[in-house]
């Protein structure tokens, strides 16, 4: 999806959006609940996480200018299997399910939204393959190359959780650089 296409999609989605301001540490989407909003992260930083054996496991970071929702919950009206919370004070635009349903009748919107979904699937596929093929040190290097600001904005224990390692192991990897 090109930047121009993404901007057009954002305009379609959020022309009549509501604005929500959230403080750092606020859970926006709760595991086990049905999520009814589709979001655009205008300002701030978020993380997606779930519980495994009583521990929070971070699986995603969301930065400014990203679209997101709890896909299975939003589109299938089912309970969400994870939570999304703010790591920084954040400003989000959102629309609800009914507004999304109305947009589905617009052919241009359908085309743009399909391109967006395909780009997200490709991104998640790359992430999954990296989790299978790459050792944590390689995943850390890729993460740092893709988003160098991540080290300044995200607490180390969240990065370690995202990489599937302990904070101590992450410190060792960082010291080898």
From TrEMBL:
UniProt domain Cyclic nucleotide-binding: residue ranges: 1-103
The domain of life is Bacteria
Official protein name in the record:
Crp/Fnr family transcriptional regulator
Native source organism of the sequence:
Sphingobacterium thalpophilum
For this protein's source organism, the top of the classification is:
Bacteria, Pseudomonadati, Bacteroidota, Sphingobacteriia, Sphingobacteriales
């Amino acid at each position: 999806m090109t930047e121009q296409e993404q901007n057009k999609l954002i305009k379609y989605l959020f022309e009549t959006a509501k604005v929500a301001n959230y403080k750092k540490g606020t859970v926006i989407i709760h595991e086990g609940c049905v999520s009814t909003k589709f979001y655009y992260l205008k300002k701030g930083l978020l993380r997606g996480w779930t519980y495994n054996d009583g521990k929070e496991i971070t699986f995603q970071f969301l930065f400014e200018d990203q679209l997101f929702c709890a896909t299975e919950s939003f589109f299938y009206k089912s309970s969400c299997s994870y939570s999304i919370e703010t790591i920084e004070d954040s400003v989000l635009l959102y629309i609800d399910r009914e507004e999304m349903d109305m947009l589905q009748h617009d052919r241009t919107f359908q085309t743009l939204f399909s391109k967006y979904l395909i780009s997200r699937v490709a991104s998640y596929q790359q992430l999954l393959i990296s989790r299978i093929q790459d050792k944590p040190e390689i995943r850390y290097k890729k993460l740092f190359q893709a988003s160098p600001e991540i080290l300044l904005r995200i607490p180390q224990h969240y990065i370690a959780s995202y990489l599937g390692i302990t904070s101590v192991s992450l410190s060792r990897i960082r010291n080898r650089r």
